[in-house]
Amino acid sequence: METSRLARLFVAALGGLSLVLGVTGMAHADPSPGDIEKQIDDKWNQIEPVIEQHNQLKIQLAANQAKVKQLNDQIAPLKAQVDAALDKVSAFAVLQYKTGRVSKLDAMLTTGSPDTFVDQMTLLNALAKDEQSKIKDVITAKRQYEELKAPLDKVVAEQDAQEKTLATQETQINADIKNLQDMRLQAYGSGAGTGNLKPVACPQQYDGSPGSRAAQFGCQQIGKRYVWATEGPNTFDCSGLTMWSWKQVGVTYLRHYTMWQFQDTKRVSRADLKAGDLVFFYPDKHHVGLYVGNGWMVHAPNPSQPVQMKKIDAEPISGYGRVA
To answer: Would you say residue 42 lies in a domain?
Structure first.
């Protein structure tokens, strides 16, 4: 009886222990770098449409703001002409211009002499009509510009609000990607390197963008042999590696020659470097590497060394290029 009870307790204890271990193991399972990169890719797929919409909206907003400025520039001198013309008219003529009528009694009281009333009325009426005739076309043009500007002002206000909303979304998703990137590097830990060829995680920057994916493809070639004039998938020279890496993400216009690749890319500053950018070396730009973040590149150095990572400052830099 006692033995049976102890056995049941023992089985129950084992079951409880198994449950605890199972739950604990699931709860504390750290995501792998690959899992985190998948999350980053998903985040990038969220942000890319936002970026494209944001870019389109910024272009449209800038164009409409330019139109508003142009209309303001056209309205300003017309307004000045109207103001200048009205300044030339007497207070009585201004009143006549604004209201379209005049008080004969006020005119008589102002002159102080009924004998001169008719002459003054004739003179003032002629002056008012002359000034009104001069500025009639100006006023018409000014009103036309203002009618064009009113709906444009409304569109600009709406686009400005939309632009701010998209900018906020873009900022938030970028912040999420940065947090995932920090987790990714932490997940790699000390096991990310393969000796001198890959001393740190590669790429160092990864946000799911085409540039970081091209850098990732370049990193995956580490250890492969350098062979002059080859462009993968088993051997590479320097421009062959950058060309092949970008080709894996759909970019086909990079040509297999360092100077051509310099011409094929957009100039950027060092402070603006992103994963996937090209880094050119030596005055004649005879060498190129693929930037992977945090001052590192992956490159195919020469026939005596395989594809590997290297700090970009190890060689004399002559320029940077962004693949559009």
So the answer is: yes
Contact 208, 220 (CB under 8 A): no
Minimal CA–CA distance to 292: which of 239, 217, 234, 224?
217
- Whole-number Å distance between alpha carbons of 248 and 226: 19
What is the rounded CA–CA span in Å between residue 151 and residue 102?
A: 36
**Four-residue CA torsion sign, 89, 94, 98, 101:** negative
* Dihedral pair phi/psi, residue 254, rounded to 5°: -65, 135
Domain boundary among 141, 161, 186: 186
Residues 245 and 289 in one domain: yes
Contact indicator for 183, 31 with CB cutoff of 8 Å:
yes
Alpha-carbon torsion (269, 224, 245, 257), positive or negative = positive
Amino acid symbol at 146: E
Measured in whole angstroms, the distance separating CA 119 from the mean position of its chain's CA atoms is: 70
Lowest mean pLDDT among 1-5, 112-116, 158-162, 256-260: 1-5
Q: Count Cα neighbours of 218 within 13 Å in the Cβ-side half-sphere.
A: 40
DSSP code of residue 275: T
From residue 267, give the alpha-carbon distance in Å to each of 94, 253, 271, 279, 284.
61, 16, 12, 10, 16
pLDDT tens digits for range 45-91: 788 688 768 878 888 888 888 888 887 888 788 777 767 665 665 45
Judged by DSSP in three states, 266 sits in strand
Q: How many C-beta atoms lie closer than 10 Å to residue 87's C-beta?
A: 9
User: Would you say residue 4 lies in a domain?
Assistant: no
Do the bridges between strand 235-236 and strand 225-226 make them parallel or antiparallel, or are there none, so unpaired? parallel
Q: Which of 186, 211, 237 is the last residue of a domain?
A: 186
Q: Which residues contact 88 (CB under 8 A, 6 or more apart)?
A: 131
> Do 53 and 138 belong together in one domain?
yes
Question: Quick one: pLDDT at residue 16?
Answer: 40
Kindly list the catalytic residues: 238, 287, 299
Residue 246 CA to residue 198 CA, distance in Å, equals 20
H or E, element range at 298: strand 296-299
